[in-house]
Design brief:
α1 (about 80-90) packs across α4, α9 crosses α10 and α9 packs across α11 (about 245-260). It is elongated, with a radius of gyration of 25 Å. A 5-stranded mixed barrel has the order 1-2-3-5-4. A 3-stranded antiparallel sheet has the order 6-8-7. By secondary structure, the protein is an alpha+beta fold. It has 4 domains: about 1-75, Nucleic acid-binding proteins (OB fold (Dihydrolipoamide Acetyltransferase, E2P)); about 80-145; about 155-200, no CATH class; about 210-280, Orthogonal Bundle (Arc Repressor Mutant, subunit A), CATH 1.10.10.10. The protein has helices at about 80-90, 95-105, 115-120, 125-155, 160-170, 170-180, 190-195, 195-200, 210-225, 235-240, 245-260, 275-290, and strands at about 1-15, 25-30, 35-40, 50-60, 65-75, 230, 265, 270-275.
Length: about 290
């Protein structure tokens, strides 16, 4: 697979407002080899003039070379002048001459451009407001880029890192550093996505309490995925065995999870339920009981 740098010229599909459940995009991009159609999945809604790093393969479609990417990451320039250029390109009403004037006036301090300074440079107030919005977007893109890069460095796949950003934004790194198994809660991912390079990067051993608890919750979600909300202890033990979890430690962890109501047990029947399933069904029963009174 190859990695290319691309700037979005136009989003060809989907149009703004069109439902896109697969997060699949068809983009017209500027690359080092010229204008090219790039297609693939992006976990966020990209914008025109956004810079991306795309990883995938070149292919031919209708006689034209295209790039089909499997991974997309934000690509924010590091150099202050390049960052100014990036913001100006995304600001309607600004061009190279304005960019040069801002740089000549403020240099590395261009981010602090004030309304008065903008007026002196003959920048219209409405254009100045767009400029400030794009500056905020640059800061946000840089935070996103740094967070995704950090999580990939921790062993996350690009898709998992992007999903973490989409779910938790600027809190993503802190949440994952606190308990990397929170990643298993993200839609489309699970215990197995964390229980490899990610947990090893945090020096989490096989018998770490965080791993045991995450495995129990994952196993319960897998076993209740078909619709049943109550699972036999035998089924849970079997599933944990498949995950190579120490069953003695798991039994102790289940006891703690009963105490904090993460799990609910039915001692006489040796059955167990997830706490939120138990609470939901209790509320339904209470509601139905109240209607019959």
């Amino acid at each position: 697979m190859k990695t290319i740098e691309a700037k979005i010229i136009q989003i060809l599909w989907p149009r703004l407002g069109v439902d896109n459940p697969r997060s699949w995009y068809r983009l017209e991009c500027q690359t080092e080899t010229g204008t090219m159609i790039c297609t693939g999945t992006i976990k966020w809604r990209p914008t025109e003039n956004e810079l991306l790093k795309l990883t995938g393969d070149f292919e031919v479609w209708k006689g034209q070379q295209c790039f089909k990417f499997a991974e997309a990451r934000p690509n924010v320039p590091e150099n202050p002048r390049a960052q100014l250029s990036y913001v100006v390109e995304r600001t309607r009403g600004m061009g190279p001459a304005t960019e040069a004037a801002i740089w000549d006036s403020l240099g590395d301090g261009w981010r602090k451009l004030s309304p008065k300074e903008a007026e002196a440079l003959k920048i219209r107030p409405d254009v100045y407001e767009i400029f400030k919005q794009q500056l905020d977007s640059l800061v946000r893109d840089k935070e996103k880029c740094d967070a995704i890069s950090y999580l990939i460095g921790r062993g996350c796949s690009n898709a998992l890192a992007c999903a973490a950003w989409e779910a938790w934004e600027t809190d993503a790194v802190g949440i994952v550093n606190s308990d990397c198994y929170r990643l298993a809660d993200l839609s489309g991912f699970g215990f197995a996505d964390v229980d490899g390079k990610v947990r090893l990067s945090y020096d989490i051993g096989d018998e770490d309490p965080r791993r045991i608890k995450a495995a129990i919750i994952y196993a319960m979600r897998q076993l209740t995925g078909s619709g049943s909300t109550v699972i036999s202890w035998v089924e849970l033990v079997q599933k944990l065995g498949e995950l190579k979890i120490n069953l003695q430690l798991a039994q102790a962890a289940v006891g703690n999870m009963f105490d904090d109501f993460t799990l609910r047990g039915f001692a006489g029947e040796e059955m167990v339920a997830l706490g939120f399933h138990y609470n939901a069904e209790t509320e339904i029963l209470n509601y139905l009981g109240g209607k019959h009174e």
